[in-house]
Amino acid sequence: MLIPDDEVNARLGSTIAGKYELLRVLGVGGMGAVYEARHRFTERHVALKLMIGKGRDPRNSARLLVEARAASAIGHPAIVDVLDAGQTEDGSPYLVLELLAGTDLQMALEERRLTAMEMVAITVQVLEALHAAHERGIIHRDVKPENVFLTTNDRGEPRVKLLDFGLAKELTAGPDGWKTMDGTALGTPDYMSPEQARGAQVDARTDVWSVGVLLYHGLCGHPPFSEENYNRLLSRILTEDAPHLSRLRPDVPAAIASVVMRALRRERAERWQTAAEMARALREGGARISAADWELVTISSTTPTVSLSGAAPVFAGAGTIVDPPVVAAPAVTVAAATPRRGRALVLIAAFVLVMGVLLALLAALPARESRRAPAPSARRTPRAAVRESSSPRSQPQAVFEAEAAAPAAAAAAADAPEAEPRPLARRKVRRRHSPPSAPATERSRLDPIRSWR
pTM score, two decimals? Predict the structure, then answer.
C-alpha cells in the first residue's frame, strides 16, 4: 500500500537536515518517497529517498544504511552514487543519491523501446556492476528491471545504473565458502533464486540467477516462473526447470539462449560461477551474431508465434524490430503474385519482348545478337527480388553457425538497398552499429549501445 499523497506532498518545500530543499516528488512506495532536492549551498540537484510512516521502522532504517554503505563501498560507474545519508529532526532516515535522467528497465520493456542487442548489452553492464560488488564481498539479492536504470554519461553514451542495494548482504569467507552473515531470505519473488526461496545461504551465483531471469524476461516478455500464488511460485522455482528460452522464442540466437539457461540452473555449481564469466559469455556469443540476424529478433512480446511461408516462426508485436510480413514480401512477389499483378507483369514482359524484336528487325542486326538483347531487361526485376529474398534480412530464423559466416551475411545485406523493399533497407542501415564492410566482431559489438529510445 502506497503512502497517501497528502503525506508525501506535505513535505514539499521543506528542508531536510538544514540543506536539502525538497522540490518535487519523483516516486512513492510503501515505506517512503523519492524527491528531487536542491542543496542549499552548492545548488546541486539530487535525488533524496526519505522513509515515511512504516519506513521509519528501525529495520527499514538499517536497510537504508546498508544501501548507503554498500553502494559507497563499491564505487563503480554502473552503480548509483550515494552522496549523503542521515536522519531528519523527526527521526525519518534519508538517503541522498545522484539525480539521474532516463527511465528504468521495467518501463522500457513495457513500452518495447529496446532491441534484443540492446537488452543483451544492458545485461552485460549489469553483470559488470555486480562483479565489482561481488569482489568487495557484497551480494545485491534484488536484481530486477525496476532496479536497473537506463541513462547516459557526460558524453551522451548510453549507460546502466544499478539501484537499490537495500537488500545487499556483506559476505565473509569461511571454510565452506561464501556465507551471508545472517542467512535471511529476501528478494523479489519472480527473480528469487532457489537458495533464496529456501532461505539458504546466498553468494555471487545468487545474483547470476537473478540476472538470468532479467535477460529471460527482456527477451521473452515475462520471467520463467510467474504465479499469482506466492507459495506456488516458490514451489516451482525449487522443483522445476525453467522453460527453455529457445522453445518459447526460436528467434533468439542459440548463442544467447544457452547463456541465459545456464544462469538458470537450480544447482549453483552448474551456473556461471561469476558475473564476469557470464558477461564474457554474452560478449562472445553476441560477437558471433551478425547485425542482420540481431534485427530478426523481436523483444518483450507475449503474442503467439507466426509462421511465414513454412519458415521457422518469429514473434510479432515488437514495433522497433523488422515487421515479418515486410520481410517476406520479396519472396511472395516472385513465387506467388496476386492474379492482377501477375497479368500486369506478363503484359509488360510481352510488350518488352515484342518491342525488342521489332527494334531488332528494323536495325537489321544479326538475329542471334538482336533477339538476346531484350532478355536481361525483361528478367532484371525478378532476379533482384530473388537476390533480396535470399539475403539474411528475408530469413525469419537466422542461422548461428560460426563467426566466419558473418561476412557473407554482410555482403548480402549490402546488396539489399538495390531491391525492394527500400524502406526496410533504410531502417536496417539506421540501426547498424558500424559499416557493413566491417568484420563481424566489429559490426555486432555489444558496446557501446546506441541509445535508450
Answer: 0.64
For the record, the C-alpha cell of 132 comes out as 565489482
Cell 532476379 maps to which residue? 383
CA distance 154 to 397: 38
What is the pLDDT of the chain when averaged over all its residues? Answer: 71
**Number of Cα atoms under 13 Å in the Cβ half of residue 439:** 6
- Cβ partners under 8 Å of residue 313, min gap 6: 250, 251, 305, 306, 307, 396, 397
Least confident range from 213-222, 290-299, 444-453: namely 444-453
Return the closest-CA partner of residue 219 out of 130, 127, 306, 318. 318
Active site residue 84: no
Whether 187 and 168 have beta carbons less than 8 Å apart is answered as no
pLDDT attached to residue 411: 42
**Dist CA 317 CA 303 (whole Å):** 7
Whole-angstrom Cα Rg for the chain: 28
In whole angstroms, what is the distance from residue 191 CA to residue 171 CA? 20
pLDDT, tens digit, 9 for 90 and up, residues 387-407: 233 333 333 333 333 333 444
Catalytic residue among 104, 142, 164, 251: 142
